[in-house]
């Protein structure tokens, strides 16, 4: 039995390129909802082509929250996202509207729904020591983390220096692996009843779409966008430049890749990223998985049927 005192919270999740935005827009239109972004790149201003933001003209007047909210050089953690997103959810619900969460950043979604272990404060002395070691021996931090906390290392990509450094920092300061501390101090989201819709298109069809989307990004001027960002003063080591597409376009600007190499690298790495997203989301509980893309009207109708079947939506 559903608790009618809870606030309805549809969530659309799945791998990149699966049509999450299109499905979320349809749900929002049908339910009188507003979109709440759950993508770690769309929060950055001026990074547009490579982040697949829905253009203003295609939003159909539906408000979008947590898009273009911070500058590229600002630190914005999963904990920050959870704090801000929870406030946004309650603000939307307080106006009698339905928040519809959509995005492919699984760690952000987990932080929103389950809360996060805050951990010790950042220690710049420890971080400087770790940075120096990584500069001397690239890849060494992830290898050390594998020895000290194999579970955390398995969840963190070897190229993600920020997360690797944080996991090592916690291990050194707390004296225990991050993986054994994650449940401490968590505060799950309360007051909402979630209904999770997961998109699971056929893998080969998804990969074709991702390849085509990468081509489209480069054709629409991704490399020029990177040049413009650098010219506007955005540092080459800004966090969003680490993302797929942008890191390759940056290497073109710096003369370390040709445009064709950048495109091919983006396609390969995006397919790998989609595979990792699928693996992550398969561990998410209570997901209604739909076979197909979110821009397919039949899939949209199926999703709406699931959402509307929840008594709180009646």
Q: Give the SSE order as H and E letters.
A: EHEEHEHHHHHEHHHHEH
The strand order across the widest sheet is: 3-2-4-1-5-6
The quaternary state of the protein chains shown equals single chain
Structural class: alpha/beta
CATH architecture level-2 label of the largest domain: 3-Layer(aba) Sandwich
What is the fold named in CATH at topology level of the largest domain? Rossmann fold
In the residues, how many domains can be counted?
2
Contiguous helical run count: 12
- Straight-line N-to-C gap: 14 Å
Rg calc: 20 Å
If you had to describe this structure to a student in words, what would you say it looks like?
The chain is α/β, with parallel strands linked by helices and 314 residues long. The protein has 2 domains: 7-116 and 186-313, 3-Layer(aba) Sandwich (Rossmann fold), CATH 3.40.50; 124-180, Histone, subunit A (Orthogonal Bundle), CATH 1.10.20. The chain is built from 12 helices and 6 strands. α1 (20-31) packs across α12, α4 crosses α7 (161-174) and α9 packs across α10.
Secondary structure elements and pairings:
Blueprint: E1 7-13, H1 20-31, E2 33-37, E3 64-65, H2 78-94, E4 98-102, H3 106-114, H4 124-136, H5 140-148, H6 150-155, H7 161-174, E5 192-199, H8 203-219, H9 222-231, H10 246-253, H11 259-281, E6 287-290, H12 297-308
Parallel strand pairs: 1-4, 1-5, 2-3, 2-4, 5-6
Key traits:
6-stranded parallel β-sheet; Histone, subunit A; 2 domains; 314 residues; Rossmann fold
Short recap of the structure:
The protein has helices at residues 20-31, 78-94, 106-114, 124-136, 140-148, 150-155, 161-174, 203-219, 222-231, 246-253, 259-281, 297-308, and strands at residues 7-13, 33-37, 64-65, 98-102, 192-199, 287-290.
């Amino acid at each position: 039995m559903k608790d009618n005192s809870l606030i309805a919270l549809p969530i659309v999740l799945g791998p990149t390129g699966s049509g999450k935005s299109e499905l979320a827009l349809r749900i929002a239109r049908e339910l009188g909802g507003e979109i709440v972004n759950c993508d770690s790149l769309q929060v950055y201003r001026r990074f547009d082509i490579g982040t697949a933001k829905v253009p203003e003209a295609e939003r159909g007047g539906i408000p979008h929250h947590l898009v273009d909210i911070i500058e590229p050089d600002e630190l914005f953690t999963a904990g920050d996202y959870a704090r801000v997103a929870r406030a946004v959810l309650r603000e939307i619900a307080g106006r009698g509207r339905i928040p519809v969460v959509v995005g492919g950043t699984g760690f952000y979604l987990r932080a929103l729904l389950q809360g996060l272990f805050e951990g010790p404060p950042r220690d710049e002395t420890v971080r400087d020591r770790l940075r120096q070691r990584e500069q001397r021996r690239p890849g060494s931090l992830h290898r050390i983390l594998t020895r000290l906390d194999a579970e955390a290392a398995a969840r963190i990509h070897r190229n993600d220096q920020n997360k690797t450094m944080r996991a090592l920092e916690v291990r050194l300061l707390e004296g225990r692996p991050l993986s054994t501390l994650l449940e401490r101090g968590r505060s799950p989201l309360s007051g909402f009843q979630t209904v999770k819709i997961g998109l699971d298109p056929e893998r080969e069809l998804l990969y074709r779409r991702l390849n085509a989307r990468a081509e489209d990004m480069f054709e629409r001027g991704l490399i020029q966008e990177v040049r413009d960002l650098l010219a506007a003063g955005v540092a080459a080591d800004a966090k969003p430049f680490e993302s797929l597409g942008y890191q390759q376009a940056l290497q073109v600007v710096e003369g370390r890749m040709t445009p064709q190499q950048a495109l091919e690298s983006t396609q390969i790495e995006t397919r790998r990223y989609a595979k990792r997203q699928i693996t992550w989301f398969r561990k998410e509980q209570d997901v209604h998985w739909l076979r197909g893309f979110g821009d397919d009207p039949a899939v949209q109708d199926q999703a709406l049927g699931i959402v509307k079947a929840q008594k709180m939506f009646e």
